[in-house]
Every structure is written in C-alpha cells, then in structure tokens.
Design brief:
Layout: E1 3-9, H1 18-29, E2 34-40, H2 63-73, E3 77-83, H3 91-98, E4 109-115, H4 120-132, E5 143-145, H5 160-164, H6 168-182
Length: about 180
Amino acid sequence: MTKKVGLIIGSTRPTRISPSIARWLQAQVAQPELAVDLLDLATINLPFLNEPAMPADHHYEHASTQQWSALVQSYDAFILLFPQYNWGYPAPLKNALDTLYQEWLGKPVSLVSYGGHGGFQAALGMQLVVRGLKMPLLTNNLQISLQKSWFNADGQFTDVDLALAPYAAEARQLGAELRHKLA
C-alpha cells in the first residue's frame, strides 16, 4: 500500500525559490510505495489563527481550518521545506502548524531548511515546534547552503539539479528512511 508524504512549502514570498527546491526534493524522495505531494502554503487558504477555540480542542468553525485539517489527516508523514528568515522560520509555516494540533500527533517529520548557511538556526527553532506537536523527527534533515552563483538575475536557479546535486544522496536517504518508518 502506498504511503503519502506531504511536502509543505513553507515560504509564501513572491520571489521564493522553494517551489524549485520542492520539485527537486519530491523527485529525489518519491519511491514506488511512497507518494510525495507538494502542499504549497501560498495557494492554501489558511488565515492567520482565526479560530476562536484552541486547536487542541479540535472544534473548527471555519471551512479553511476544516479543509486544512482534512488535508493534513490524509498524510502519513511530512517534510517541512523552509528558508531561514533572520535566524527563524517563516510565519506562514508556523501558522499552518499552529492552526491544528491532533492532526500532527505521531506523524514523522523531516526538516529541510535552506539559506546562506543552510538555515541551521531556523531548523533549530523548528525542532522545538515539531517536538511540541509530538511529531517524531527523522534522522535525515537536509540543510541546503545556497551559493550566489546558482542564481540568475531574477534570483531563480539557473540549474536546480546541478546546484542541488551535492544533496541528492541525503535526499534519497530521506526517502529510504520514510519508506522504512512508514512500512
């Protein structure tokens, strides 16, 4: 039976590079018995913490929260992809996590951060968040260090496959770990 992994794109900036990284990562991690779907927070209608009740109560009044809850429940594990912003993670990703609670419990998660120095500080902060959500952190968590030479004048990858090639083996190991963990 095929297991489902949700790869959440945590940046919503108009000039973001995360969709390119996400498609590359999806291709590296996916396997015949492991489907990896891209969940782009830029296209998911998720207002900022607008529910009157605490997420742990699981009483959702708004259709946007109910839809997000159903989507998250449909996955067996998650990969969170996010850049480092001022040593932290993006607010839309934190909002997406904080909007729910029970839906995340026990679901394995990998953190894939990127930035000038791999997004280490953002990943460190996110580790505390997923621990609070009772999500088991996988051992394979990529930290992608960006180099200016990888990008064109518009700030987009000139060749994402070439740029991220040094991370391919680690990404494939993540796929193998997910397959083993979800078997």
